[in-house]
């Protein structure tokens, strides 16, 4: 048969093409076989990756403690629940490893989580219908507590599993939140990957993020398609490195005192702002610092004020500035306290606006400069600067007190005030705290020179950094004297003047007197600038403040309080909310620190020495202490005392609560307890505590008499009691609050 000519032509064309294609494909297969690489991807590595499971081993973020080791922030474990619904997962197991009864499983879990049964049942049924291996349950099961997980595990439901994670938790809730700040899980770029890590957002959490953070590890192993480990899984483990712990100078008990009274004043007077700072003037350690509005770092939603006002919000200080004006005049040798001057109003010349005293310029006739300080005379301050010191010399002292710079406190967001000193009137008004702006912490730093015999200390809130794994101290701070603007003699004379404002018949600070301790200080009533020019008017439109120290001969504590624009009744004065904060905190804090009262305290307070608690029966020891007038709570009905919040040799006040934990601890009735006593109880018993609200306990989730064990969950609701009516005084007894910038 003759072949078609066209067939020859087509065959001649196709044959070479087939030969070329064969060579290319064969060559490609040989190349892949020889190199094991496709498009730059190693097939061996790809296969290993496909059959390798890798999980992060999260480093525990370092804890934040107060100065006594009370935990203020830590990583709390949470659990994400998921359900395996693929019955193939149970093929090689003697017991079911998948959900076998969706209805029963959903019903039991819903009861524990207090959700609708359908919320659990629907995801399980959808997973089964769509041949999925496992299902999750959204927000209702993403952040389960350890107690919830344990309760579900006790049900022994097949197919229900948990994945452990952690969130940053603050056991004291709205407690020093502007200092501690908060941390949250955020996306972080690391080694060309986006990873989720707990990261500090504000406060110490942000400032010390690298110290607290640590380094995550990982574990990887080879598995089959059911996620079971192979016999030779080639497991690789890199252990995580936990973050270091940070200890603050804050004292949990003093901070709690501050938080309680600030909340009470906030509820009673509805001010725009409240700020309080407690400091040890001998060291510069900040023992407490808080402000309102505040927020709960466990749920920082709808936050009104992110700023820590004590360090970030300068304002015109008012007459607390007179402390430093008088100190400068005394130090410079131009002050004569008994010298008289004409009070009321003062005008340097016709080109400068006259200065008026705060009682509408009426004054008190001719009085001494000492009395001018007691009465908080603006005229006295102006004459001291303009006629005695000289404006240039006064400016030198403003710089010596570091009013032109930040304090350098170890908190984020510090802002320095501004010395307004361009024109003659500004130089004069600075003498009594108008025009020039300062932060509370700047004033506290300067006042350490008054309290500490001339030596000015830098304030700080970080006490030390500790290796969380070894307990070794990595870094520890110590007092830092940053200046000596005045002498010891001047400091003593100024303290005497400060005491006179409290004790003198003419003084403006009588409301700040303490029961057991001598106290000195200076009040302030600062005007608030009007955005449209000038200053706001009206009885409430001031920042009322007080800077005080006690005991006045050798101050152990110093405190600053400011309350902005409180809503005052007709008969109330601005010093009422300020003094309520100051006196409550200072009196109790000084007793708590075992500072000896310098007033006659006979029959006022009973001091009790703690015996050896390890010897004798618990009931006998409790009775002995009670007979001495102590307030004793015995925890449990055991015969031996195994721990307590006091130790042998301690001296405590009769009003302090002594907690004795027996070898059979049971839950006491804590209704009416303060937050600090409740936290101390939880710390003693190693309970997981959740605080709701502030004030005093009104509910407890564990019934009285219930046996307790470590890590039990204790939830308590606190409420602020109604502030008792105070005896109202005539407003004219505190002329500083009437009008003007006192």
TrEMBL record:
Main location: membrane
Enzyme class name: hydrolase
GO terms under cellular component: plasma membrane
E.C. no: 3.4.16.4
Pathway: Cell wall biogenesis; peptidoglycan biosynthesis
One BP term from GO: peptidoglycan biosynthetic process
PASTA domain location: 663-720
Annotated compartments: Membrane
Chain intervals for the UniProt region annotation (Disordered): 722-742
UniProt xrefs under Pfam families: PASTA (PF03793), PBP_dimer (PF03717), Transpeptidase (PF00905)
Keywords of this entry: Membrane, Transmembrane, Transmembrane helix
GO molecular function (one): serine-type D-Ala-D-Ala carboxypeptidase activity
InterPro entries: Beta-lactam/transpept (IPR050515), Beta-lactam/transpept-like (IPR012338), PASTA_dom (IPR005543), PBP_dimer (IPR005311), PBP_dimer_sf (IPR036138), PCN-bd_Tpept (IPR001460)
Compositional bias (Acidic residues): 724-742
Reactions that this protein is recorded to catalyse: Preferential cleavage: (Ac)2-L-Lys-D-Ala-|-D-Ala. Also transpeptidation of peptidyl-alanyl moieties that are N-acyl substituents of D-alanine
TM ranges: 9-31
Family: Belongs to the transpeptidase family.
Protein name in UniProt: serine-type D-Ala-D-Ala carboxypeptidase
Organism: Oceanobacillus zhaokaii
């Amino acid at each position: 048969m003759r072949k078609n000519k066209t067939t020859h032509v087509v065959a001649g064309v196709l044959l070479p093409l087939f030969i070329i294609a064969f060579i290319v494909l064969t060559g490609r297969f040989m190349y892949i076989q020889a190199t094991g690489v496709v498009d730059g991807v190693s097939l061996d590595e790809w296969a290993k990756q496909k059959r390798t499971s890798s999980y992060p081993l999260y480093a525990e973020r370092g804890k934040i403690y107060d100065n006594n080791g009370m935990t203020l922030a830590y990583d709390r474990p949470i659990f994400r629940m998921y359900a395996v619904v693929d019955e193939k997962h149970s093929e090689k197991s003697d017991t079911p490893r998948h959900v076998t009864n969706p209805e029963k499983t959903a019903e039991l879990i819903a009861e524990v989580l207090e959700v609708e049964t359908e919320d659990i049942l629907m995801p399980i049924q959808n997973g089964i219908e769509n041949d999925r291996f496992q299902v999750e349950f959204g927000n209702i099961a993403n952040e389960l507590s350890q107690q919830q997980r344990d309760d579900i595990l006790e049900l022994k439901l097949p197919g229900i599993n948990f994945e452990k994670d952690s969130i940053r938790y603050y056991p004291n809730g709205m407690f020093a939140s502007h200092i501690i700040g908060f941390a949250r899980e955020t996306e972080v770029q690391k080694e060309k990957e986006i990873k989720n890590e707990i990261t500090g957002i504000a406060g110490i959490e942000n400032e010390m993020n690298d110290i607290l953070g640590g380094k995550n590890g990982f574990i990887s192993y080879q598995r089959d398609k059911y996620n079971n480990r192979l016999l030779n899984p080639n497991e690789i483990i890199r252990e995580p490195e936990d973050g270091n712990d940070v200890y603050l100078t804050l004292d949990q008990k003093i901070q709690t005192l501050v938080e309680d009274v600030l909340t009470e004043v906030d509820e009673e007077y509805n001010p725009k702002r409240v700020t309080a700072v407690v400091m040890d003037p001998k060291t510069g350690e900040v023992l407490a610092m808080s402000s309102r509005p505040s927020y709960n770092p466990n749920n920082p939603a709808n936050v009104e004020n992110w700023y820590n006002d004590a360090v970030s919000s300068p304002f015109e200080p008012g007459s607390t500035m007179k402390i430093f004006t008088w100190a400068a005049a005394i130090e410079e040798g131009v002050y004569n306290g008994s010298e008289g001057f004409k009070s009321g109003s003062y005008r340097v010349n016709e080109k400068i606006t006259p200065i008026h005293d705060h009682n509408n310029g009426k004054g008190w006739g001719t009085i001494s400069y000492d009395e001018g300080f007691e009465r908080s005379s603006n005229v006295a301050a102006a004459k001291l600067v303009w006629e005695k010191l000289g404006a240039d010399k006064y400016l030198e002292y403003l710089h010596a007190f570091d009013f032109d710079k930040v304090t350098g406190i170890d908190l984020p967001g510090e802002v320095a005030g501004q010395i307004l000193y361009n024109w003659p009137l500004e130089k004069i008004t600075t003498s009594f705290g108008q025009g020039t702006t300062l932060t509370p912490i700047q004033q506290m730093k300067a006042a350490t020179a008054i309290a500490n015999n001339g030596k000015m200390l830098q304030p700080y809130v970080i006490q030390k950094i500790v290796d969380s794994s070894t307990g070794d101290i990595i870094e520890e701070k110590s007092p830092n004297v940053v200046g000596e603007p005045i002498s010891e003699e001047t400091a003593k004379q100024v303290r005497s003047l400060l005491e006179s404002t409290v004790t003198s018949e003419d003084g403006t600070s009588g409301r700040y007197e303490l029961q057991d301790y001598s106290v000195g200080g200076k009040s302030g009533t600062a005007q608030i600038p009007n955005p449209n020019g000038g200053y706001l008017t009206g009885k409430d439109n001031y920042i009322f403040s007080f800077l005080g120290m006690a005991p006045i001969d050798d101050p152990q504590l110093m405190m600053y309080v400011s309350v902005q624009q409180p809503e005052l009744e007709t008969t109330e004065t601005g010093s009422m909310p300020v003094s309520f904060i100051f006196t409550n905190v200072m009196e109790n804090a000084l007793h708590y620190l075992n500072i000896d009262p310098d007033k006659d305290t006979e029959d006022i307070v009973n001091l009790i020495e703690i015996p050896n608690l390890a010897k004798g029966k618990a009931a006998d020891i409790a009775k002995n202490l009670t007979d001495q007038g102590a307030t004793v709570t015995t925890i449990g009905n055991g015969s031996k005392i195994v721990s307590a919040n006091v130790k042998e040799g301690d001296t405590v006040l009769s009003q302090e609560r002594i907690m004795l934990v027996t070898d059979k601890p049971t839950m006491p009735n804590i209704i009416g307890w303060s937050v600090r006593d409740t936290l101390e109880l939880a710390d003693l018993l190693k309970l997981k505590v959740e605080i709701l609200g502030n004030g005093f306990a009104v509910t407890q989730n564990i019934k009285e008499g219930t046996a307790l064990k470590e890590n039990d969950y204790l939830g308590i609701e606190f409420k602020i009691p109604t502030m008792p009516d105070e005896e109202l005084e005539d407003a004219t007894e505190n002329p500083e609050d009437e009008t003007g910038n006192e």
